[in-house]
Amino acid sequence: MDNRPAFAALHILAAMAVLGFVDQYVKLLAQETSLWSFHILRTIMIWAIVGAWLLVTGRRLRVRNWRGLIGRSASMSTAMIIYFGALGFLPVAQVAAGLFTAPIWVLVFSVAFFGLRIGPIRVLAVAMGFAGVVLVLSPDPATVSPFVFLPALAGAFYALAVIATREWCAGEGAVELALGIFTFMGLWGVGGVLVMGHGTDYLTLGWVSPTPLVLGLSLLQAVGSLLGVVLLTRGYQLAEASLVSVFEYSLLLFSAVFGWLIWGDMLGPLGFAGLALIACAGSLIALRGERRAAA
After folding, report:
1. Mean pLDDT, range 259-279, rounded to an integer
2. Residue 130: which pLDDT band, with cuts at 50, 70 and 90?
3. What is the DSSP string of 135-201?
């Protein structure tokens, strides 16, 4: 492992910028196709891209723990299906805020299922994160909808996948882990097409024949997702995770900025305060966890 934290931070910032940008266009996909058709198309494209790379490099895929990979992929793909489903109805910054409650959920699950004992600082961090989610989502009690809380549910499944990564998939390669997730998302797409079929909108429509716009946006998503994973993986190879993981929270800022530039979505002062609280809570949990592990 290299020790170049500044260069690692640039890689992670670049990854978050790419993801924050390409996810803005899910709104257009939601108008032209279904959630399920999109994931089928994107999975096919990603396998084609990776397959070509494997042929050029001569590398072979290798899975050490199939049960672990399947369990992690199932949890992460569920989080991503909820994430992309919510993107059809909510601004990217709000959805990203819900996804980044994952460190809070990891702490909650660790206490509930693994008997982890936590001190007052991490309890405070959980409270900060919850307050941040409320501020960002800003649900109106008069018109509250279940869709508002979907991003936080995505964060819970993401947290389960994070735990599974440590417990079951420590020896797996980044390409294998990424393909596992995208393959399961493609399977989600097939299932959605078979079950839905007769709806009228993004979530309830079945298979929709892709238009050139849908194909182009799906390719943008495929390339952007792969590029983001590569940059993120490289960033964690260039420095210790404890030094650079906090830079993942830049996705909250990139999502807000690109949402404003492209769609005119603008969070109010309370929304930005909520983003800051979520980022501070996640960073505090991560730093306390690293110090505890070191001790």
Report:
1. 81
2. confident
3. HHH---TTT--GGGGHHHHHHHHHHHHHHHHHHH-TT--HHHHHHHHHHHHHHHHHHHHHH--S-SS
For residue 238, which phi and psi values (nearest 5 degrees)?
Answer: -90, -15
Q: What integer pLDDT is reported at residue 55 of this predicted model?
A: 94
Q: What are phi and psi of 96, to 5 degrees?
A: -65, -35
Per residue in 100-127, pLDDT (tens digit) is 777 778 777 877 776 767 677 777 877 7
> Does the predicted TM-score (pTM) go above 0.90?
no
Higher pLDDT, 14 or 95: 14
How many Cβ atoms are within 10 Å of 239's Cβ, its own excluded?
21
Identify the burial level of 49 via C-beta atoms within 10 angstroms of its C-beta, where 0-12 means exposed, 13-18 middle and 19 or more buried.
Answer: middle
Kindly give the interhelix angle for 66-87 and 150-168, rounded to the nearest 10 degrees.
160
Cα Rg, the chain, nearest whole Å: 19
pLDDT for 1:
47
Residue 142 scores a pLDDT above 70: no
Question: If you search the block for the tokens 């108008």, which residue do you land on?
Answer: 31
| Structure tokens, 171 | 């020896």
* H or E segment to which residue 128 belongs: helix 120-137
CA–CA separation, 237 and 1 (whole Å): 6
- The residue behind tokens 């505090």 is 284
Give the DSSP H/E element, type plus range, for residue 104: helix 102-114
Local structure of residue 175 (DSSP, 8 states): H
